[in-house]
Amino acid sequence: MVLFSQMLNNSPDLSDAIYRSKNIFANNLGSDIFWSGRNFVIPFFLIIDVLIICWRLIRRYRQMQLRHIINELHYIANGNYDYRIPFELRGDLSKVVDSINGLVDSTVAAIEDERAIEKSKDELITNVSHDIRTPLTSIIGYLGLIEDGQYQSPDEILKYTSIAYNKAKQMKSLVEDLFEYSKVRQPSVPVNTISFDMVQLLEQLAADFELEARKKNIQVLVETQEPQLIMDGDTEKLVRVFNNLITNAFKYGTDADKILIGIEKSKNEAIVTVKNNGKEIPREALDQLFDRFYRVDESRSQEISGTGLGLAIAQNIINLHGGYIYAQSNEEWTSFIIHLPLYKNQVKTLPDNH
Question: Is the pLDDT of residue 127 over 60?
Answer without folding.
Answer: yes
